[in-house]
Amino acid sequence: MKYKIIIFSTVLLFLLALSTSCSSCSRSGRAKIVAMAKKEAAKKNTVPEPNTIIKDVVPEVIEIEDVVTPKEKILINRELIKNKISEAEGDLIQVEGLIAKEVNELTIDLETGSNQINQIIAMKNHVFSNWHYVFDPAIGHDTWRSAEATLSLKYKGKYSGDCDDFAILLASFARQIGLRSRMVGGYDGGSGHAFAEFLLEDKETDNSKLKGENYRIDSSGKWISLDWFQGIDHERFTKNIKIYEDI
């Protein structure tokens, strides 16, 4: 299954800057990067790459403070206070903070109703439809962004990053609406892929929104995939896995 996603080639320069802490970037410098990304946005199509995580290697964690300037962080906190939202909790998979704000807005905009399954499936489809696949910076090791860091990089309604960034964000959305969720690292030979999944409650087993969705069963129950790959493209990464729940 092929998914064509527009890649911002110059956003790679932006992500490269993360490794040296972009909190020191000037506002004018960041504006130039955004302007360049806007110009490059429609130039090249690509498909998501599965081999983006490395097994048993500790990744570099990118937090929101590594992405935004101190002044921007102050503005974000003011907006959260205005919306009566507490600061984010968690390191990578997070709740509250920008996650709560984004989930609140999406569930209203997407008219999901109050059902958790309807909400998370609608949000997954929306985020995937508005996701720009961007590789990790070429710094020799893997980087995983916190959910807040990914949301702070949102540009004109579009999200960006690779599979682990997508998985962490979706696991955070699921957890924000009260579902037990986690990220899974799946390996097929030399390829490593990350995806999110959530635990299905017994009362929701007949929900029509789950038709065609991949799932796994373990001692805890039935876990529904929130992967952007589906069918055999997803299942190839479910035989040799590593679970990341407390990240």
Query: How many domain regions?
Result: 1
Q: Could you give the order of the helices and strands?
A: EHHEEHHHEEHEHEEEEHE
Strand order of the largest sheet: 9-10-8-7-11
Radius of gyration: 18 Å
Instruction: State the oligomer.
Output: single chain
Largest sheet: 5 strands, antiparallel
Low-confidence runs of at least 5 consecutive residues: 1-29, 39-45
What class do helices, strands and sheet pairing give?
A: alpha+beta
First CA to last CA: what distance?
Answer: 30 Å
Shape: globular
> How many DSSP-defined strands?
11
Task: Describe the protein.
With 247 residues, the protein is of the alpha+beta class. It has one domain (5-244). It contains eight helices and eleven strands. The strands form four sheets. Strands 9-10-8-7-11 form a five-stranded antiparallel beta sheet. The protein has a two-stranded antiparallel ribbon with strand order 1-2. A two-stranded parallel ribbon has the order 3-5. A hairpin with a 2-residue loop joins strand 7 and strand 8. The longest helix is centred in the N-terminal third of the chain and has 14 residues, at 27-40. It is globular and about 45 Å long. The two termini are 30 Å apart.
What are the salient characteristics of this protein?
247 residues; alpha+beta; five-stranded antiparallel β-sheet; two-stranded antiparallel ribbon; 8 helices; 11 strands
Quick overview:
The chain is an alpha+beta fold and 247 residues long.
